Structure formats: structure tokens, C-alpha cells
Amino acid sequence: MNNTSTPNPADNHLASPVGTTLERYIMQKQGEFPFATGELSQLLRDIALAGKIINREVNRAGLAGIAGAYGQQNVQGEEQQKLDVVANIRFIRALRNGGQACAVLSEEEDEIIHTGNDQGKYVVAIDPLDGSSNINVNVSIGTIFSIYRRVTAVGSKATRADFLQGGRQQVAAGYILYGSSTMLVYTTGHGVVGFTYEPSLGEFFLSHPDIRIPEAGKTFSCNEGNWFDYPECVRTYLTGCKQQRFSGRYVGSLVADYHRNLFTGGIYLYPPTKKNPSGKLRLLYESYPLALVIEQAGGKALADGSAVLDIVPIDFHQRSALYIGSKDMVTAYQACAEAEDQHPHPAPAVVA
């Protein structure tokens, strides 16, 4: 009889490794985090925990009676879905209970949400559930988040200054995609990593240790229903994409369209329109975090003629245009826009 406790390597095929959990990965990489004292690590865990709960809610929404419209509008003037309200509550609760975030800025709330954790050193800006109207038709939706180290004194109440620092001051940002599988993708300024949720174990496992967007792509993602409202430079660029037989892919869920292009190469465009002359996407909790991820993955993000992360914020719910994705495609769009600025053409007449 063999009394040794040393596992036999020949038996490894009976129980292959399941991978590195998010918890273990964060502990291994904590030294890369700014001011590595554990608070940022805990914040990422709190966001992941809320993501697990939302994954459950999304998967049982129809059975639980939480799909469909809530019957109210949020501060953006958009009709709230029941899951918008649920996700907002879940993330705020997780961040409050985690103790590291002194305040939260949510798409669903008008003003700062103070968590009561005034000793916390971080603030979080979040879109709790992007694309929630798609839940009724089983299309992927997501959560987008951005984390800043506060600039006000620890122990005091967070103020506007803590959230209006600018995109370059983000210490971490990312998103959670609730799709055929649920993924958490984030950056702390040292590249981009992706974790896939394993529901039977209730854990996120490292599945993509170094995400890099292809420099070139052949996919464009935009709402072509707004074609005649788009600036001429956008129509010129998109016409060139079509002449090259690029593929148009758009489901109307920002995280889903962005995620596909991040992995396969492409460009996502949300230009200004007559209805939204400044653009529609929210700068602080949509454009900034996705721009930080894309730059860390080797891509590019533009708005209003400059890098998204260089736009100076002036308002919590400030809107922006967004051109984001593979570096070569975004650069090509930028060239079209600059050429149009130098030699503008009149917009074609719209025939009713």
C-alpha cells in the first residue's frame, strides 16, 4: 500500500486544472495596482460579485417577472427597464457593502450616491446595465465601469471634483458582458485581461490573459438608420468601407458590438446626429472606460477630433460622439474627417 501523500503526475488527466480564478489573479497582480494597499483589489472583487448576481438576474428575468419596462424614465430621459433598476441597486449595494468606494456615479441617478464609506479612497462611475432594452429579445447586454482614486481628503464627502478628473486619471476600467457566456474584461493600466464566468463553480476564471485588438479590421458597427443625420465625413468613410466589402455588424448593444470588435478587429461609430448634436454616449461611464480598455489593448478611440481620454469633462452626464476600435480603421476615419474639414461638401438632399 502506498502511504505517500504526493499526487501521482500520471493521474492528472483525471482532474485537469480549471484555471486561475479572478480572486487569485488579483492577489498575484496587486503589486501592479497604483498605491497597492488592497482597496482597488477589493473594488474589483465587489464589481465582480455584483456581476455574478446580475448574470443570475438576466438569466431568470422572464421567469422572475423582471423583464420589460419599469414605467419610469431615468435622468437621461430614457425609459427605464426593470433590469436597469435591479442592476443599479445591486451594484450600489455591492460597492457600499465592500467599503472601498466612498461614492458612486450611476447612469440611473442624477447626482452622486454617497455610500457612507467616507474613509474609502476610490470613486466609481458606472453604467449598471447597458442595452437593457435588448433583454426582451435575448440579445447580449453589459455593465461598464470606471474607477478613480479620489482627489478630495479621505474622511470627507466625495464631490464633483472626484468624478471630473478626466479619462487619463482612471486607475481601472472595464465591462461585463452578459451573453452566451458572461465575461469580465478590465484594465488597470497594464494591458487588458478577460475572465469568463463558470456558473457551476460560481467563479470568474482567467480565459484571456493578454487581449490585443487587431490593428486592422474589416467590420464597421453603427446604426445606419441614422445615415442621413450623420456628418458627411462619416458617410464618406462608411461608403469606403462598403466599397471594400467590409462587414456591417450592429445589434444596438454597445458592450456587445464593442466586445466583438475588440476580439476580431473593427470600428464602432456613434457620431453626432441632429437629435444628439454632441453625441449620445455618456463620457464618464461609457466612452472613458471603453477608451481606456481599447488603448491598453492597442486600439484607438476618438471623439470631437481628439482622443477620447483627452476630452475635459464638465458635467456628470456629459455626452460625446465615439469612434473606437482597431487603430488602422480609426486612423482612416480620422483622415476622412480631417479632409472634410479642409474641403467641406454640402450634405445631399433627403428625398421623402
Structure description:
- With 352 residues, this protein is of the alpha+beta class.
- It folds into two domains: 187 residues, Fructose-1,6-Bisphosphatase, Chain A, domain 1 (2-Layer Sandwich); 124 residues, 3-Layer(aba) Sandwich (D-Maltodextrin-Binding Protein, domain 2), CATH 3.40.190.
- It has nine helices and 18 strands.
- The protein has an eight-stranded mixed beta sheet with strand order 4-3-5-6-7-8-9-10, with helices on both faces. It has a six-stranded mixed beta sheet with strand order 12-11-13-18-15-16, with helices on both faces.
- α2 runs antiparallel to α4 and α6 crosses α9.
- The C terminus is likely disordered.
Keyphrases for this structure?
single chain, 352 residues, Fructose-1,6-Bisphosphatase, Chain A, domain 1, 2 domains, 30% helix, disordered C terminus
Summary of the model, kept short:
This is Fructose-1,6-bisphosphatase class 1. This protein is of the alpha+beta class.
What is the approximate shape? globular
Mean pLDDT: 88
CA-CA gap between termini: 88 Å
- What series of H and E elements makes up the topology? HHHEEHEEEEHEEEEEHEHEEHEEEEH
What's the helix and strand layout?
Layout: H1 22-29, H2 39-59, H3 61-64, E1 69-73, E2 79-81, H4 82-98, E3 101-106, E4 113-114, E5 122-130, E6 141-149, H5 160-163, E7 170-178, E8 182-187, E9 192-198, E10 203-208, E11 219-221, H6 232-243, E12 247-248, H7 254-264, E13 267-270, E14 281-282, H8 283-296, E15 300-303, E16 306-307, E17 319-320, E18 322-325, H9 327-342
Parallel strand pairs: 3-5, 11-12, 11-13
Antiparallel strand pairs: 1-2, 3-4, 5-6, 6-7, 7-8, 8-9, 9-10, 13-18, 14-17, 15-16, 15-18
